């Protein structure tokens, strides 16, 4: 996901009781200036220019606050949906570390959007960017110095373990720390009521069903391929194996529309889409991967301290669906 860059006008004093600057609004709403600009750009918060200065009426800010007074569950649902919809827009974007002041955090979970926003609030001399790339490709990009930090949720069927084996294989000779973000439930997305009784991996071979798959390189695709291997199932036995979508949200929506009968994804997304049921299969571990050599730089220390902060933990908890028992812990060194 690409960050929106807008130059802030100077000053944080109010021109009048009714006209506020972006800084004033940011202080009132406890958000960043860039977030204020993004709200105005999206039309969620009315704004206008006085010369080159952005101004927002106090009444409009109060209306915005009142409109946000929705239930916690709906608010969390909107956060997830907005993140997933934005991913649809930027799926094909390719980012590269061309500027030494760029930091690119790669991965596809909304937790990373929250993390990036927390970092942006604390630094003003570098750009904090997001790359919407699956785990396998993210590790490849980290090895090739195209990104700064990778997220990963790759299950290895031979060790029955997440992430460590893949990091060792894909970053040979590179010492890395694997730092936990969360644990999530993954499982089948099925048509409401599960009419085809899809409950285990071998059920994917039923001739009367068709699946919607994830793209190569995503953690879920690798989980599927490993499970098929261990269960001696060939991809030719799975109807719809070659039908790919670029996010859990896209898979879930496809099942809800009847384009397929089963997909695989995490429980959080299943809870945001009507018309499907979620059949849990296993708990996956979702981690950050940071090169040991990078932790001497302040920005990487800031990323680590942010993940370990109570403020970040509380915001992730508010999203629901994450087990944060090991958040911020270094689980392995490769």
- Biggest sheet statistics: 9 strands, mixed
Q: Estimate what percentage of residues fall within beta strands.
A: 15-25%
The value of Rg in angstroms is 21 Å
CATH architect. name of the largest domain = 3-Layer(aba) Sandwich
- What is the CATH topology classification name of the largest domain? D-Maltodextrin-Binding Protein, domain 2
Tell the overall outline.
Answer: globular
Total DSSP helices: 12
End-to-end span in angstroms? 28 Å
Q: What do the pLDDT scores average to?
A: 84
Task: Identify the CATH homologous superfamily of the largest domain.
Answer: Periplasmic binding protein-like II
Number of strands: 14
What is the C-level CATH assignment of the largest domain?
Alpha Beta
Can you give the helix content as a percent range? 25-40%
- Please mark out the parts with pLDDT under 50 across 5 or more consecutive residues, or reply none: 1-16, 84-94
């Amino acid at each position: 996901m690409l960050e929106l860059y807008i130059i802030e006008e100077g000053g944080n004093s109010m021109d009048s009781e009714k006209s506020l600057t972006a800084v004033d609004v940011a202080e009132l709403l406890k958000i960043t200036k860039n977030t204020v600009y993004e709200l105005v750009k999206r039309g969620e918060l009315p704004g206008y220019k006085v010369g080159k200065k952005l101004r927002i009426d106090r009444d409009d800010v109060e209306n915005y606050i009142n409109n946000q007074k929705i239930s916690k569950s709906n608010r969390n649902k909107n956060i997830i949906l907005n993140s997933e919809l934005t991913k649809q827009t930027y799926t094909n974007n390719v980012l590269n570390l061309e500027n030494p002041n760029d930091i690119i955090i790669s991965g596809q979970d909304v937790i990373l959007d929250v993390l990036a926003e927390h970092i942006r609030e604390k630094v003003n001399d570098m750009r904090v960017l997001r790359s919407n790339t699956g785990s396998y490709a993210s590790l490849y990009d980290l090895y090739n110095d195209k990104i700064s930090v990778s997220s990963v949720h790759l299950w290895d069927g031979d060790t029955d373990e997440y992430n460590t084996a893949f990091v060792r294989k894909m970053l040979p000779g590179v010492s890395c720390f694997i730092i936990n973000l969360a644990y999530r439930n993954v499982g089948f997305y099925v048509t409401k009521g599960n009419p085809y009784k899809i409950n285990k991996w071998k059920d994917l071979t039923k001739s009367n069903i068709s699946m919607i798959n994830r793209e190569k390189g995503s953690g879920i695709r690798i989980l599927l391929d490993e499970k098929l291997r261990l269960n001696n199932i060939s991809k030719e036995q799975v109807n719809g194996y070659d039908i790919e979508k670029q996010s859990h949200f896209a898979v879930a929506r496809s099942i809800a529309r009847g384009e397929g009968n089963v997909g695989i994804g995490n429980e959080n997304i299943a809870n945001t889409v009507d018309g499907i049921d979620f059949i849990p299969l296993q708990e996956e571990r979702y981690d950050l991967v940071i090169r040991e050599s990078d932790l001497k730089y302040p920005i990487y220390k800031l990323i680590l301290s942010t993940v370990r902060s109570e403020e970040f933990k509380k915001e992730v908890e508010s999203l629901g669906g994450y087990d944060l028992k090991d958040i911020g812990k270094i689980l392995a060194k490769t």
